[in-house]
Write a structure and sequence with these properties.
The complex is a heterodimer of chains A (92) and B (136). Chain A has 92 residues and is an alpha+beta fold. Chain A is 43% helix and 26% strand. Chain A has one domain. Chain A is built from 2 helices and 4 strands, in the order ββααββ. A 4-stranded antiparallel beta sheet of chain A has the order 2-1-4-3, with no helix packed on it. In chain A, a hairpin with a 6-residue loop joins β1 and β2. The relative contact order of chain A is 0.25. Chain B is α+β, with helices and mostly antiparallel strands and 136 residues long. Chain B has 5 helices and 4 strands, in the order ααββαααββ. In chain B, α1 packs antiparallel against α2 and α3 runs antiparallel to α5. Classes of the chains: A alpha+beta (92), B alpha+beta (136). At the A-B interface, α2 and β3 of A face β2 and α3 of B.
Chain lengths: 92, 136
């Protein structure tokens, strides 16, 4: 699988409330979420196939576009700095 | 190379400023001139910087970096919208006075759009907030 179509594999979240000496640093293994999603996706695949036929949607293209959308989130970074809290989220 | 940039590099060479200060000055210069990317360099991220100073909530800074790939993928999703739904979207857009046809969003047009965004720089500056949108 090419890197451009890989969804974010991990996320790091850093929260530091005002007055705290150290913040809370979390590393979230998103790849586990995707691994869990694979059997669910396979389970729902027949229903998705029927729904795609009913609504006239190309299932293969839809899956490809959804994967590309998920992959597009790699590199996203959001930092919010308020007087009360500092929050930083990064998707790797 | 423009005069200001040369002046900064001269100051660095003469030891009047250090490398970090020079980097900061060049970055400030680029921000001022709006030239965020060198010609030929493809934009990788869309950056949104918001700096507010609310009297109630206090100063707040928001820094968002969105990959351009997400924009491409988002537009690609329009390709999977059924024809009937596209017509409805176009109709709704026309009613709102937006003469836009989403069928025209093709991969070629999209690349052109992303390429044009490379030079995008929006600066909003008022008493309460500063907003800056640019590509890097």
């Amino acid at each position: 699988m090419k890197a451009e179509i890989l969804p974010p594999l991990s996320a790091s979240v850093h929260v530091k409330p005002a007055g705290w000496r150290f913040g809370i640093r979390l590393w979230l293994p998103l790849f586990l979420l995707w691994l869990l999603m694979i059997p669910l996706f396979l389970l729902f695949l027949p229903f998705l196939f029927v729904a795609a036929l009913i609504f006239g949607v190309n299932l293969l293209r839809t899956v490809g576009a959804t994967l590309a959308l998920l992959a597009g989130f790699r590199g996203t970074r959001v930092d919010v700095d308020t007087p009360d809290t500092k929050v930083s989220v990064k998707l790797h | 190379m423009n005069d200001n940039r040369r002046q900064i590099l001269d100051m660095l060479a003469q030891g009047k400023i250090n490398a970090a200060e020079a980097e900061g000055l060049i970055a400030a210069l680029e921000r001022q001139s709006g030239a965020t990317l060198a010609p030929g360099v493809k934009a990788k991220y869309l950056r949104v910087l918001v700096d507010t100073d609310d009297p109630l909530d206090g100063p707040t800074k928001v820094n968002v970096r969105v990959p351009m790939q997400l924009l491409r993928a988002g537009v690609r999703l329009t390709g999977v919208i059924p024809t009937r739904a596209r017509d409805q979207v176009n109709e709704a857009l026309r009613k709102e006075g937006i003469p836009f046809d989403i069928n025209e969003l093709t991969p070629d047009n999209l690349e052109e759009l992303v390429e044009e965004l490379r030079d995008l720089s929006v600066d909003v500056d008022n008493e309460k907030a500063k907003v800056r949108v640019f590509c890097e």
